[in-house]
Amino acid sequence: MKSIKKIYKLLIVSFLLCTVSCDDDFLDVPPLGLVSDANFDPVMAVTSCYNIMGNYDNRWSDWRILILGDALSDDAWKGGSSQTDQIDIYQMNIFATIPSNVIPRDVWSMYYRRIFRFNWAIVNLQGLDQEIALNRRLLGEVKFLRAMHYFWLVRSFGDVPLVEEPLSSDQHNKVRESEINLYEFIERELLEAIDLLPTKSEYQLRDLGRATEGSARGLLSKVYLYQEKWSEALDQAGLIINSGDYQLETDFGNIFSREAQHGPESLFEITFAENDQLSNPTYHAIAQRSRNVFGGWGLNCPTKDLLDAFEPGDPRTIHTITFHGDITEGQTHDHSGYDNPDQMHNMKAFKPVSLQGNSANDGENFRVMRYAEILLIYAEAANELGQSGEALEKLNLVRERARNSSRTDRYRTFINFELAEPENVLPEITETGQTELREIIWQERRVELALEGDRFYDLVRQGRAGDVLRSFSQQYNADKGSNFQDGIHERFPVPQDEIDRTNGLIIQNNGY
Prior knowledge:
By secondary structure, this protein is mainly α. The protein has a domain at 244-272 and 285-348 and 370-456: Serine Threonine Protein Phosphatase 5, Tetratricopeptide repeat. Helix content is 46%, strand content 6%. The protein has helices at 2-17, 42-56, 59-66, 68-71, 87-93, 102-126, 133-157, 179-196, 213-226, 230-243, 283-286, 304-309, 316-320, 353-356, 371-384, 388-403, 434-448, 455-461, 465-475, 496-501, and strands at residues 76-79, 266-270, 299-302, 321-323, 327-328, 331-332, 344-346, 366-370, 412-413. The radius of gyration is 22 Å and the shape is globular. Residues 1-35 and 276-281 have low confidence and may be disordered.
């Protein structure tokens, strides 16, 4: 996919010529610089909407936000040089978060800064001739991006302000909209995007990485899943499955390779350009590599609990986790001497030095959604609707791919870990009892999507975050999860800055 990276470099240059900047108050109108309503260029404006996700708005905060779904769950330790490294993540990790914690503030402010840009682009795109196919497509792309960010806000905070157009500084006192109304807005936005967007196969190669009809359907199926709208989730996932636009990578070990970026399994990913001159760092990947070698920061470290969740002999184990003592291109993975209790790291974020490029600027995309998740959404929805046969068919497709995946790593030699070889690796699931099959699907989702940022939010939507995290704390004698209180810690605290800025019109979440 080298052509995609070259194209993205050009998009970055375009962005640098048309940056829309803003200060920390997401509702204040920023100076528009070279881009304004008067000289609005629709292609350049939408390009800037993609680029703002590539770490330009806040490079340091972005990686911390992307790993929260793992770091707050039973899948990962915070990691870092010590307990006090990234103390704000640690505070959230033990569920002792206070409203002045910088992580919720960064989530809130970063996503609303992006939404400001999306709103500005949408308002101007809606004023263009909608008989022109390009204008319709561009509008659909930005509507998808806006819906995605509101979804991320809702699952983090619950009720949040709904802002659909650029506001002036004297209009910033917006109250929080109910979660129900926000989900209705997200659904409408995605349904509109579906009508406006081409399918993945209709895009030319140079446009791969843009939002597609499948991107919007995939996110909509997930939005329905979070609301337990099982029929709707099943329908949307089914349309993706039947479209023929997506398929599972043959080998699980290839999903996170450079060659597979925007590949047949990808519904949407945030693109990072490989470039030595432009500051577009892939900090989310670097943060999760070993501190002692490979230029990493030693954060978001897998737990033994996650390792034990894999069935014996599951090839996904070695393609998800790197182990202390592994040897890659003659270099030994040293996961000792820092806050990494189980001495493991995220293989999905790791690349050998020969493939890393220029450290931070190594062009490692962040996968937002892939086809395997669609199959698991379909399976979960089908099971809840009493269609166990349909659920088993899709579930077993995911397991079959895993079963037949490579059991070795061409770059890595294992010293302290040996992948078991039982007689029947990942056998087909035949269980039809709804309760039992539900647990199996949840478990499959955990190992298939491990360390991809969803685990904590999954536990919350499944209604078992407190039970799982308190149990983890007891089992491993850990602070992690020990303070979780049901009815409070499913949501982040609203940033105190936002409450103060609106003179209390924005109210705090329960318990903070």
